[in-house]
Amino acid sequence: MNIFRLAGDMTHLISIVVLLLKIRTMKSCAGISLKTQELYVIVFVTRYLDLFTRYISLYNSVMKLVFLGTSIAIVWYMRYHKVVKQTYNKQEDTFRHYFLVLPCFVLALLIHHSSSVTEILWTFSIYLEAVAILPQLVLLQRSRIIDNLTGNYVFLLGAYRALYILNWAYRFLVEDNHRYHWIPWISGLVQTALYADFFYYYFKSWKNREKLQLPA
């Protein structure tokens, strides 16, 4: 564990807390893409299949359970909560997210570190996470005006992956026995690049003390 890994995990956790705070206290999921949240459920389920078969540490197991549980809870709220589901922007959340799943799975079958089922599914989760934010970004572009909690949630998600890239770089430089995996590196860079436009307008709105707004 190093400071970049810890900061990445905490940033990821805070992003989920921000989203749940919006849903629980405001009884609203306006501006949040259900399709992105469903993709994250797939990401965590396929990544953490080893939860009950491989023990690394208490911290690792707890974080896996938290990410699994909260991602499922968010989707449940958006789909079934009698108040929250009425605030979902279904007409604007039109990105066909299922088109992302099959290419990522095929890519995982073709390009992976080892051919075990758990390894292929782990690789699939890495590829899928890299593009899972696309429905959310498209929704934000269509809704234009973004409330503070939604903007902070998306920013923290992007910051989490950027911090993980620093974590991998740190481990590569410092740890003699660190195994270099280029798949997370490339996927992480792609994922961070997708946030670049959002980051620009996020910092611009913060600097000018304006409402966050993305161009069409």
TrEMBL record:
PROSITE patterns assigned to the protein according to its UniProt record, in alphabetical order: ER_LUMEN_RECEPTOR_1 (PS00951), ER_LUMEN_RECEPTOR_2 (PS00952)
Entry keyword Transmembrane helix: yes
Coiled coil regions, renumbered to chain: none
Single Gene Ontology BP annotation: protein transport
Record flagged with keyword Transcription: no
Membrane topology per record: Multi-pass membrane protein
InterPro entries from the UniProt entry: ER_ret_rcpt
Molecular function in Gene Ontology: ER retention sequence binding
Keyword entries, A-Z: Endoplasmic reticulum, ER-Golgi transport, Membrane, Protein transport, Receptor, Transmembrane, Transmembrane helix, Transport
Protein origin, superkingdom: Eukaryota
Subcellular location as annotated: Endoplasmic reticulum membrane
One GO CC term on file: endoplasmic reticulum membrane
Protein name: ER lumen protein-retaining receptor
Organism of derivation: Vitis rotundifolia (Muscadine grape)
